[in-house]
Amino acid sequence: MSLRVGDVLGAIDRRAPFGSAAEWDAVGLQIGDPERAVAAAAVVHEITTGTLDGIASAGAELVVTYHPLLFRPLSSLTAVPGAEGRAFALAGRGVAVISVHTNWDTAPGGTSDSLAAALDLRDVEGFASSMTGAGDQAWFGRCGSFGGSVGDLADLAQARLGVRPRLSGPLDRSVGRVAVMPGSGGSQVDEAISAGADAYVTGDVSHHEARRAADSGMVMVDAGHAPTERPGVQALYALVAGIVDIPVELVGGDDNPWER
């Protein structure tokens, strides 16, 4: 029996329920027919102009993307730069798109757990709860024991995430408890402080958010939006490859706009 788009959608939903995504998020099937058979798939961090070529080269008829391709309703679907044009290109080729985002952040083994594991955190628990689309509260970040210095944490971030982070504290400061939030977690600074974190690893931290953390005595470790999501994208690829019996290719890894 042929594998259908809907089969993959259902398998992902069982592992990382789409209803567990944040209420503002856009997840699930964004392009395509759930009844269509697929013979090859691709996993991407984000659908960009560059990854479109890789998707075509892989012969993928289904793309599972971490960052949603479409966040806002479109008034047209034409061949223009940006998300609208990429959606037009994929729809024209008959390529289906499934988006997982914050539902994968909250899932066991998903983006947040993968970031915590990459930084060798122990005794991990959830922090920074928010309302889901299903009307429940879910933990979108993680916090756990570390037992090293700020310098040790920065070295791990460089080795595991591929980036030297910005730091708001001295390298020799002891760090016993670390909070992590993949992607853009500056607005959760207060939650990290309340969780008792000595350091907080996330991306997209503003000047004022870093100042608030420093005033509280917590060290900010800004490792960037895309780098903090890299372990979770690898885990997403492993998930998709493990639930289908068709070729699956990880295309691009990520397309960080700050790295060229």
Give a verbal description of the structure.
It contains 9 helices and 11 strands. It is an alpha/beta fold and 260 residues long. Helix 7 (189-194) links the parallel strand 8 (174-184) and strand 9. The strands form 2 sheets. A 6-stranded mixed sheet has the order 5-6-8-9-10-7, sandwiched between helices. Helix 5 (111-118) packs across helix 9 (225-243).
| Whole-number tally of structural domains | 2
**How is the main sheet built?**
6 strands, mixed
Question: What is the strand tally?
Answer: 11
Query: Spans with pLDDT under 50 lasting ≥5 residues?
Result: none
Q: Averaging pLDDT over every residue, what do you get?
A: 94
Rg calc: 19 Å
Q: Which descriptor suits the 3D outline?
A: elongated
CATH architecture of the largest domain: 3-Layer(aba) Sandwich
> Strand-residue fraction?
15-25%
Number of helices: 9
SSE string, helices as H and strands as E: HEEHEHEHHEEHEEHEHEHE
**Sequence of strands across the biggest β-sheet:** 5-6-8-9-10-7
CATH homologous superfamily classification of the largest domain: NIF3 (NGG1p interacting factor 3)-like
User: Gap between N and C termini, in Å?
Assistant: 43 Å
The percentage helix is: 25-40%
